[in-house]
Amino acid sequence: MALQRGFTIWFTGLSGAGKTTLSNIVHHRLQSEGVTNVEVLDGDVVRTHLSKGLGFTREDRDTNIRRIGWVAQLLTKNNVPNIVAAISPYRNVRNEVRKMIEHVGGPGSFIEVFADCSVDICEKRDVKGLYAKARSGEIKQFTGVNDPYEPPHNPEVRVDTSQCTPEAGADMIIDHIRSKGFVKL
Amino acid sequence: MALQRGFTIWFTGLSGAGKTTLSNIVHHRLQSEGVTNVEVLDGDVVRTHLSKGLGFTREDRDTNIRRIGWVAQLLTKNNVPNIVAAISPYRNVRNEVRKMIEHVGGPGSFIEVFADCSVDICEKRDVKGLYAKARSGEIKQFTGVNDPYEPPHNPEVRVDTSQCTPEAGADMIIDHIRSKGFVKL
Predict the structure, then answer these.
(1) Cα-flanking dihedrals φ and ψ of residue A142, to 5°?
(2) How many angstroms away from the CA of B92 is the closest CA of chain A?
(3) Is the Cα torsion angle B173, B179, B180, B184 positive or negative in sign?
(4) For B13-38, how does the pLDDT look when each residue is reduced to its tens digit (9 = 90+)?
(5) Count of CB atoms within 10 A of residue B139's CB?
(6) Which residues of chain B have pLDDT under 70?
(7) Strands across the sheet with B8-12, in order?
């Protein structure tokens, strides 16, 4: 597989929906097929580098997403494929980032992937123990519990992670970027 | 000229010392010789994207520089040559960024350029009218007037912008990156 031009795979979804798992599989899949310079911008990691001090109000969440988006467009513009995995709960700012990235990377270069999974199931998984903390009130403004999540209307790829395996989800994403000509066999 | 590997040209110096002027000339010189994918991160521009809300205390300035540095290392790591032009008054955080960039880009990939010029001369130029505002008290914490500037001890390139033309300064910088093998004739 060879890279043809830069793109951003932008995961959105609840905590525990599988964004990081999917992004890691897609990352390794791309690497093992020869696209070696993929940059993963994980929400938690990026927050410590770009957004220390920001909280979880709508305004602060939007600012955080705009910053990640700005870095993603720098990479896409320079043909560095990148994967962002952040809850990014608000539709408007996701669409703002979409425009910013397609402006430099061309149509289709923003690939929104909806890691779709109900709160119930995410809460049952509760890998990081965060839902428990949200229910007990220890964490306020937790997306899906006491803070809104706005699902995308027309994501490029929707992965129902309650139904399909991470590997099958990654296949759908790789198929998409291949079919759109971003990578070539 | 062809790019061999990524690097960061990091300008430091007082407001009005010539950082932006030099960075623009170096950028165009590189472009015209075939290194077309150079990314310029100008301090003022980056502040609006990454550091809105931060002020000019030492802590806030350091946070701003760390964020720019983090983006610069992402680019260097992915072989995207980049130029940062920000006052970056504190030596410690500049050295922190140096380590972060050399960690991903290898020895020498952080090229510190000291735009060296006395406060007196910068103040006489006062292109943006900022020194006048600092003297009148309209701007507080202005580097060189009522906020410290720590010159680098061993910059890779020192350009005395009170003595040499911007073009001659740019020559010194291009000569450096060529002699270190980052670009090739």
Answers:
(1) -100, 125
(2) 18
(3) positive
(4) 999 999 999 999 999 999 999 998 99
(5) 16
(6) 185
(7) B39-42, B82-85, B8-12, B110-116, B157-160
Instruction: Please answer yes or no on whether B49 and A66 come within 8 Å at the CB atom.
Output: yes
- In sequence order, the 6+-apart residues with CB closer than 8 A to the CB of B105 are B5, B6, B7, B8, B73, B76, B77
A179 belongs to the catalytic site: no
Pick the CATH number of A2-184 from 3.30.530.20, 3.30.559.30, 3.40.50.300, 3.30.450.40: 3.40.50.300
CA distance A129 to chain B (A): 30
Domain ranges for chain A: 2-184
Whole-angstrom Cα distance, residue A152 to residue B41? Answer: 32
d(CA B89, CA B95): 11
- CB-nearest to B49 from A39, A70, A77 is A70
Query: What pTM was computed for the model?
Result: 0.93
Query: Is residue A19 packed enough to be buried (19+ CB in 10 Å), middle (13-18) or exposed (0-12)?
Result: buried
Residue corresponding to tokens 């010539």? B18
